[in-house]
Amino acid sequence: MNTIQIKDKRFAISIPEKDILREVDRVASEINRDLEGKNPLFLSVLNGSFMFTADLMKRVTIPCEISFVKLASYQGIASTGTIKEVIGLNEDITDRTIVIVEDIVDTGLTMQRLLETLGTRNPREIHIATLLVKPEKLQVDLDIEYVAMHIPNDFIVGYGLDYDGLGRNYRDIYTVVND
Ligand code: IMP
Question: What is the pLDDT of residues 104-149, one digit of tens each?
Fold first, then answer.
């Protein structure tokens, strides 16, 4: 299946599963090396990171915990636009080593908001692990230590990422075709 159609858009395969998993392997090894003995708490940001989280966690071999959070968007007052609130974080993260697990850092605004929110809860340290980064779109200064892949500024689906709710189930990553 080299191309797929989702609603009005056509997508062509751009990163096959085997290439994704090779990089997920590498990221897991880096985490195993760096965070040994710290009993990290992985915070997976739903929905988009569910597949990355599963594959990553199968390869993390150090003692650790995992939990899931969601970002709920709600309309703020007109000037601030959409605000994202972190929901589902029930753990006490005081003095914990946190690893945020994200699907993609695009402008970086979502990640910045997450870091701000988690930062108020007194963690010992916060690390970022993301499947993808679009460096051309990044608007904020973030220290992203664990990145599986850097990609161009094109819209993608698959491996957890969606277009209008669809496409998350594909095992490969597809890039939109502009025709
Ligand atoms: P940011 O706040 O601009 O960094 O946006 C991050 C969020 O936008 C991700 O968690 C995704 O849900 C979504 N996103 C950004 N780029 C894409 C894409 O190419 N495909 C699907 N979702 C995307």
Answer: 999 999 999 999 999 999 999 999 999 999 999 999 999 999 999 9
Q: Please state whether the predicted TM-score (pTM) of the whole model is above 0.90.
A: yes
> 3-class DSSP state for residue 69?
strand
pLDDT tens figures, 63-75: 999 999 999 876 5
- Ligand 1 atom nearest to CA at 138: 4
Q: How far is the CA of 166 from the centre of ligand 1 (A)?
A: 14
User: What's the one-letter identity of residue 39?
Assistant: N
Q: How far apart are CA 55 and CA 64, in angstroms?
A: 15
DSSP state of 54: H
Distance 36 CA to ligand 1 centre (A): 30
Active-site residues, by number, are 106
Cis bond upstream, residue 47 (ω within 30): yes
User: Strand order in 3-6's β-sheet?
Assistant: 3-6, 9-15, 173-177, 156-157
Instruction: Report the C-alpha dihedral over residues 109, 111, 112, 115, rounded to 10 degrees.
Output: 160
